[in-house]
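Task 17 of the worksheet. Students: predict the tertiary structure of the chain below and write it out as structure tokens. Keep your answer in the requested format; marks are given for formatting as well as content.
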Amino acid sequence: GTLLDAANTLRGGPISPGWTMRLEAMAAGARVLPRLSPESVPFSPTGTITTESSMQQGAYHGMLAEMQFWIASWRQEYPDVAIYLTGGDGSAFAKPLESGIFAASNLEALGIFAQYDYEKNL
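Model answer:
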């Protein structure tokens, strides 16, 4: 995540593996674990009876908990912070996170276009 304050000053943020990378790391680190693609699996603490569902739950909910931690930390320091989830996994996490979270899978492309349009009109 990247945190910009109201003056557009970079305040930092974590670099962390995404959902796919978490699953790939598990498979690479233990040869007996299968290679999986991210797949939404309904949460059930007792329903992770297969290796695949256990891996999916661990990767998804570990990432969700990490995002909740960072959002709560940022909101302590910046109560009016707006949160935008970008990238391919953003929409899978927007709903379980609290309200006020926006998912925009193409935000990077919109930013690049805005920069291009701005520079073209200088």
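Marker's comment: The domain at 16-120 is CATH 3.30.420.40 (Nucleotidyltransferase; domain 5). Strands lie at 3-4, 10-12, 83-86, 101-104.
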